[in-house]
Amino acid sequence: MPAILKGDFITEEQFMRATVALLLTGLIIAFAGEGLAADPAKIALVIGNAKYPDNELVLNDAANDANDLAEELMHDGFVVDKAINLTGDAMRKALDRFYGRIAQGSVALIFFDGFGVQSNRQTYLLPVDAQIWTEPDVSREGFALEAILGEMHNRGAAIKIALIEASRRNPFERRFRRYSAGLAPVVTPANSLVLYSTGLGSVVTNSKNDHGLFVTELLREMSVPGVSAEQALTNTKDGVVNATNKEQVPWLSSSLTSEFSFTGPAARPPDKPADQTPAKPEPQKTEPPKPACEAAQPDSGASAEDLARDPVIADLSRKIAANGNDAVARYQRGQVYAIRHLYVLAVADFDAVLGLDPKDAEALNNRCWTRAAIGDLQSALADCDQALQIDPGLTDALDSRGLVNLKLGKTTEAIKDYSDAIQRNPRASSSLFGRGIATKRSGGDGAKDIALAKSLDPNIAKEFAGYGVTECAP
């Protein structure tokens, strides 16, 4: 063997040992590097559902935000499964894969961006092909967040994290109208951290940008080194509040007893003043809200081309063509037409339903609502009165009759109808907004009702403008 250092010689056996040692060292370094890139003890499922056939617009921010968050989580060492536009079957399979990767003692995180609905005090995350026409459909078609967190816990996750951007007003809720806006509180297992993009029972205006404010703030806070996960989410909440002038207040629930940081070991509380915490960029301010009398103009409705491309209407029309007496398909198509502001077509479908069953209180209520929207007020009033005679407990009919009376200038009757509806559903944004307008028009102060309605549904003024009702003096 040749000399290697100052004339010293090694045997062939020593050379082989040295070579093996070097190879092992290289492997150790390589595996250490992989461990920094992806830690199997940190598992994440990221879902961005943007294309719902029932929704008029694609939620571009949902897909983009999911991509950005998945990238950040991978940078932070998570093993990430990212999925866009999941059907119910695909979403079930993605959740099963996620559960299967959870190891005892691991950190498990789910992020969902899309549509969510609360029903029976539960929050349900909806796949893009959800078929929802009545409230019971929600639990059948959706995925309960509480059940997802429970399964994460049962599979052995030490820390459970849910980041939910689903507090949007969606077309499914409008179909059965008796709904509670926004998301419901979730009962979490121990050592859980849950953040909603806005408060319980509230919804946010659909973003017209390619990225949402909530995830923008979240990404900024998650990337700060050494900050605990709980503090990062608290900072996210504060950032959204500041950026929206307190109009959007995320909801945070924590039962964490373990320290955890997205970027590495969590820092313990400092002994010195908190001004040593990393500086946070000043959030962008949103434009101040427009004055009440600059209310949105009524929506002109879907165009003929949009109508021809609408897959839901096309499917229902096929069913009606095959069976003209299909009252369910007629009723459902009437609801979709009404949501699309195609009120005349909606009335025609409700006429057909009532021709088959004149005592269908739900169809009478819906025809009352659509007739009110197009100004056929006396016929609308007769429909609502008949619906309430058939079913005195039909809260939706009280809300619809409140709209009719409001448009007729009968503010006292409108206030009573809306108040009766609110007594049964205190978070009904439509009834609150209508009562606020009626109170103002009768000379009272309806500002509190109007403000609460807008906090529950930022689009409620636009919806009423579509009925020909604004906050401006009549």
From TrEMBL:
Keywords: TPR repeat
Start-end of each TPR repeat: 327-360, 395-428
Tagged with keyword Ribonucleoprotein: no
Start and end residues of each stretch annotated as Disordered: 260-306
Domain Caspase family p20: 40-98
Highest taxon listed in the record's lineage: Bacteria
Pfam families documented for this protein: Peptidase_C14, TPR_16, TPR_8
Keyword Cytoplasm attributed: no
InterPro entries: Caspase-like_dom_sf, Caspase-related_regulators, Pept_C14_caspase, Pept_C14_p20, TPR-like_helical_dom_sf, TPR_rpt
Name used for this protein in its record: Caspase family p20 domain-containing protein
Classification lineage: Bacteria, Pseudomonadati, Pseudomonadota, Alphaproteobacteria, Hyphomicrobiales
